[in-house]
Amino acid sequence: MEKQKxxxxxxxxxxQFRRFFEEASRMPGITGENLLALLExxxxxxxxxxxxxxxxxxxxxxxxxxxxxxxGRKTNVPSCLVKAGDLIEWRKESTKSEYYxxxxxxxxxxxxxxxxxxxxxSMIGNVLSLPTREEIRTNFNEKAIVEYYSR
Length: 151
Description:
The chain has helices at about 1-10, 15-25, 30-40, 45-50, 55-65, 100-105, 140-150; strands spanning about 70, 75, 85-90, 115-120, 125. By secondary structure, the protein is of the alpha+beta class. It has a 5-stranded antiparallel beta sheet with strand order 2-1-3-5-4, with helices on one face. A hairpin with a 4-residue loop joins strand 4 and strand 5.
């Protein structure tokens, strides 16, 4: 059940989730925390955390439609992993959309995690560092997921 909650929360399918778990288990450190950090580093999740979208599925859609640049290059891959120091910005063409204009007005109310920063004037997000377990708010138990895959 915990694995299903995590998959649904982050909007990933089984094969992709298993691939994230295998990568997390190869990394040094605690596997459950590594898994959470990998899921949080997805571009669609970062766009959601920066307040550019109201849900992860909406963030996935606007990334898929090519509205963002990652480090100055257009990207439309929601599963792309960001690193510390990466810049996420709106494409110049996308700033003319009605959605962007509404977003600029209501972005002030958004709460942004400490591992990210947002310049609200230019609408550019910056990944300050990789997320740690303390900075990630989840509604599932990552230890149960590790135990499930360890069987």
